Amino acid sequence: MRDAWRVPAAARAMTMAAMDPELEAFIPLFPQVELADPVADREKFTELAAAVPAPDTTGLEIEDRTASGDPPVPLRIYRPHQAQGAVVWLHGGGWVMGGLDSEHPWATRLAETSGAVVISVGYRLAPEHPFPAALDDAYTAVCWAVENAAELGVDPDRIAVGGHSAGGGLAAGVVLRARDERGPSIRFQLLNQPGLDDRQETWSARTFTGTPWMDRAKVAAAWRHYLGGAPATPYAAPARADDLSGLPPAYVATAEFCPNRDEDILYALRMLQAGVPVELHQWAGTFHGSQAILSAEVSQRQIAELGAVLRRGLTP
Predict the structure, then answer these.
(1) What is the CATH number of domain 2-313?
(2) Is the model's pLDDT at 79 over the cut of 50?
(3) How many degrees, rounded to 5, is the angle at CA 286 between CA 282 and CA 291?
């Protein structure tokens, strides 16, 4: 099974010894998604999401809503009993895959572990809708959450934004835009393995050419679909932003064998240097998206921590 993923020889000895064995056993079961055919890849992504054990939704009120926009943005609201805050949650999938249904298991778990209202966003996907479509939808969702806080039963000053992978990059872009435009007040940003930099110049981006699920080639394909040939701006690729001051407190989580790892760590460091409170957790032995392997002890800790961190981030 160790041959199921590849890295350059210079890094092989280090990485082969460090993969979490509970995760490594599942690597051959992951579907091959190359991001060359978005329609076909979306079907595989849906199949992968369907294989995740159904969560217990007891104690949650779940409803589908729509945020007014051009076009309207579909939302799915997960409301725990006596929730005090909310998070606008943006799914992963390389900006080309995923949606409200595929994100259901993870949005449910986040609501359960955090006690916060989770507003899952069905943003438009590339390549049919390249940047800034997804960012516009995410920003619309954040504005909607603040404007409808009373109806949601939460404090409008306790609204966070977060996401996984591509969704984490969108969350970081939304936070930058809200700061620059003096838009909605965002209390906290929850960035799980976010995609932040299209340039792929870090060590992890250049080295991880055969890592499980997400590698250099797939990241490059995702950025091509998302940008649609246009130059990247800081709202598309937040690592390009010159000024990270004035942002809300952040939690950044990285996976050891993820091309995004080093750009995420550098972004966290730059926020710290700009005076932004940051909690950074680098999960040893994990790969991009491996928290979907729920039987692994490290995955259980990752999911529990996301909820605990969000709870703390929304606490006055």
Answers:
(1) 3.40.50.1820
(2) yes
(3) 100
